[in-house]
Design goal:
53% of the residues lie in helices and 3% in strands. The protein is mainly alpha-helical and 232 residues long.
Length: 232
């Protein structure tokens, strides 16, 4: 944690478990580590193993072992790729593209108000979070040729094997990314009041009958945050 990359979130989802395993591996030879291995560590390891074997068609039920051919089109990082959309394959859907669009809106609003520092803090935080998502969620800096760390043991097969071979890591990593992204979105509502004001206005127009059906995003906000949209 003291290296040049300590400021980055290098592993999503299993950071605490990875730190625990690393601490065991760094013990002196002959050290009795059995008392440090708790039931939750065993459970996490079992989840990692079960997710891996199931993704390749091997599972177990009350009837015994079950072997099936894994779907050829299935990709372990599928949902992570859908969330980030690094290659912008679905215009208007990926997190990374959304960050770029929001940055452009920040810049435009800055020019309108003539205040170059109006959104500086918000964009710096958003940019840092987006960079960690891009570099460490579903991929690692090994993919970018990082030379200051020992080479990946997956180099001969899949350089990004930490994620490519662990559906459990992809799942819990994506879950943590969702939590971070959601928290940032709620924080943005506190910093920029206009979206909430528009949601209030939309709700009032809908309740009073001036618009017959809820409109897109504003209707979704009213459903997701009913306690925020108080106008009747």
């Amino acid at each position: 944690m003291d290296g040049p990359w300590n400021i980055h979130r290098r592993l999503f989802g299993l950071g605490i478990f990875a730190g625990f395993v690393t601490s065991l591996a760094m013990q002196k030879p002959g050290t009795d580590i059995r008392s440090r291995i708790l039931p939750n560590h065993v459970f996490q390891l079992q989840c990692i193993l079960d997710a891996f074997t199931t993704s390749y068609g091997w599972s177990h039920n009350m009837l015994g072992h079950k072997l099936v051919i894994s779907p050829k089109a299935f990709h372990l990082r599928r949902d992570v790729d859908l969330f980030l959309d690094r290659e912008v394959l679905r215009t208007g859907h990926g997190w990374l593209e959304g960050v770029e669009v929001l940055g452009q809106l920040f810049e435009r609003d800055t020019q309108i108000h003539g205040d170059q520092h109006r959104h500086t803090h918000k964009y710096e935080l958003l940019h840092a979070m987006s960079k960690d998502f891009r570099d460490w969620l579903g991929e690692s800096m090994y993919m970018s040729g990082l030379q200051i760390l020992p080479p990946s043991r997956f180099t001969s097969s899949k350089p990004n094997g930490l994620w490519e071979y662990s559906p459990f890591l992809c799942g819990v990593g994506l879950k943590e990314a969702f939590e971070i992204a959601y928290t940032f979105g709620v924080w943005m509502f506190d910093q920029c009041q206009e979206p909430i004001l528009l949601a209030h206005l939309h709700n009032m127009l809908h309740k009073e009958g001036y618009i017959k059906q809820p409109i897109g995003l504003y209707g979704s906000l009213a459903q997701l945050f009913p306690s925020l949209v108080l106008l009747r």
